[in-house]
Amino acid sequence: MYHTWMRYFTPSPTHHRLGLACLGVGLQHGLLPTVGPRTLDHHVAVVISAGGGWFRGPDGTVTTVTAPALIWLTPGVRHHYGPDPDTGWDECFVDFTGPATPTYTELGYIEPHRPVVPLSDAAGARAAVGRIARAARRGNPLLEVETGAAVHELLVALRRARADIAPDGDPVLQALARDAFRPLTVAEHAARHGMTPAELRTAVRRGAGCSPKDYLLGIRLGRAKELLAATELPVAAVARRVGYDDPAYFSRLFTRRVGTAPVRFREQQGRAVPGGWSQQIPDPDHPPILRSSAAGGPEPAT
């Protein structure tokens, strides 16, 4: 005995250009029938939240599936899977496609070569699937946009839920972020973690989908943008704050990566306000605003 609910969609070519298009969503539980062998022309994320079963890939290798787990079905790859015939399992699935899938694959969010991925928790992924299911109500004029946006959320939720990643993120990436503004080479960063440069590159690419150099550069330039936009520090001082002793080199690097010079970026994005820059993360329900003081002058909200 099993229970199933599913909906399928046919997004227009315009909706495909949003990057990801949702083709279907389903929620099922119980003694579900075996799926396949079959081959699809699009991606499917199957989230197993309770129970267990098996998965057989194109080479015939059988992998045990134990909840919580993710099964990746990728285009052109033959697959065959099903729950334990005695206990069944609880699953939800999302079919999707779009031009953004190769990029998500390159970044490690979609893993064609690891079709069964253990998860630490399926709650976040199920919540994203739930948003797709709610958007799938008949007559919803925003269906394609809402479901497409939720597929992006689902991929992020699945990435966070991987059992091989700590709840607060990869400790190597956390340490790199903490030391990003120190004038260290990649080899020196690796040595601080007892790793070779090659091992560090592998770890960072697995965790962030890019090289250590690009990961550190993204953090440095992000902070530089914040200082340029929210303070009146000279460009040379901003450069030093983010780890560059040579302001001319910093300006060239910033211009090449951002597409505009630091001075021009400040002119476009400057938001210097009384009170200066805050390190406090704002509450989305209570964003920082300027209030009028009793004396009539502006003061920063707290």
From TrEMBL:
GO terms for molecular function: DNA-binding transcription factor activity; sequence-specific DNA binding. SUPFAM superfamilies: Homeodomain-like (SSF46689), Regulatory protein AraC (SSF51215). Gene3D superfamilies: Homeodomain-like. It comes from Streptomyces alboniger. Residues 269-302 are annotated as: Disordered. This is AraC family transcriptional regulator. Transmembrane segments: none annotated. Residues 170-268 form the HTH araC/xylS-type domain. Keywords: Activator, DNA-binding, Transcription, Transcription regulation. PROSITE patterns: HTH_ARAC_FAMILY_1, HTH_ARAC_FAMILY_2.
